[in-house]
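Researcher: We're reviewing a set of sequences before deciding which ones to prioritize for further study. For each one, I'd like a predicted 3D structure that I can look through quickly. This is Lysosomal Pro-X carboxypeptidase. If possible, include the structure in token form so it fits the rest of the review sheet.
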Amino acid sequence: MEFRASSIGLVYKLLLVLGYILPILAMPTFLTHKQVHRFSMKKINKFAVSNTDNSFETYNYTQVLDHFSYSPQAYQTFPQRYMMDRTNWGGAQNNSPIFVCLGAEEDITYELDMGIMTDQAPKFKALLVFIEHRYYGTSMPFGGIEAAYANSTTLGHFTSTQALADYATVIIALKKELNAQNCPVIVFGASYGGMLASWFRLKYPHVTIGALASSAPILYFDDITPSYGYGSVVTKDFKNASEICYKRINESWDMMDKIASAPQGLSNLSILFNTCQNLSSKDGLYDWITVQYMIAAQYNFQEVEGICEAINGLPEGVDTVSRIAAAVKYIQGPSCLDLNESDSTYPGWDWQICTEMVIPIGFPAEKTMFPASPFDIKEYARECYLKYGVLPRPHWATTEFGGHEIRRVLKDFGSNIIFSNGLRDPYSSGG
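Model: Here's the predicted structure for Lysosomal Pro-X carboxypeptidase, in token form for your review sheet.
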């Protein structure tokens, strides 16, 4: 594939511009610690805003089920959704660029507000394309979500490598349809989508000339990044906001343990934290509080500073646990805290972390402000096997995509990939 020098220069200029902007805008889209996944995904969907701008046209590409097998079932197809905005495109005749968002672990309509693409499209006269990830949104094999998620056999085609091949086939077919073979493609993604964007550039360099990977923890596999890296950044965020807030959070767990272990202790915690149901264990409450601290650091929906103000704002003499309860009220509002609230999100990411996306987040003692919870691959695998009947492959991501000695790999092989991180983002420790 040949590109005009002017087109390549334009795209390189774009990559330079985005390299300055994205560290500020980096916003990941997922958490992976197995104890808190249910809460984190719910929080994201609660705050996600679907873009219904009429400038987006919706299409379906007839996608094959399995790109890497020639068995009869591999030739089954499903409709893969993609959306396109031609408003600013300079056209194929001008070799104007194509910006492609590689859909991640959610409905593609939630990705349409990726401001960096829409903001830069007018400047570069770019066509915007958003491709949905298989097994999310409406891009369901086997006719629908119930059949697609029926068992590990139907879910067996739900992998990142299949998703990358999906994107390649859609992009190639779309460029042919638009007679845009000479239009350079840049892929975008955030968090898991950012991982996909970087891996796509490595796997399909003939399809895209560059990738922008925002908050992409491609180094959070195997032992490349310490398991406590994520928690240490969350801890740093709170410590930077308020040293006394950090100390109060750090000491609160032991104090709550003492309350929980006393007679009527769980009942007292239920009253103090205004839970909708009486606590039968402290674990659910601890998980919920832990997730809120993580979400504050990662997504900034409830600011770290706001939580610390709620903790520190009570008069002198108020005990630490009551201060944490005040922070919970700040986050939750006046309604009771329902720890049993059902999770309506797709179980898709849960399947992915139980198979290939094994990101070993843990909280070893004294490394973070959280209660000690080291990553335990045996327990992790046991939970996955009980749920899906499959065992995770913790080393597959680095086998398939690399990660060890990444600087040498990117220098010798991968090029034109921007890795951007907000330094308050906990996943910056692995990307």
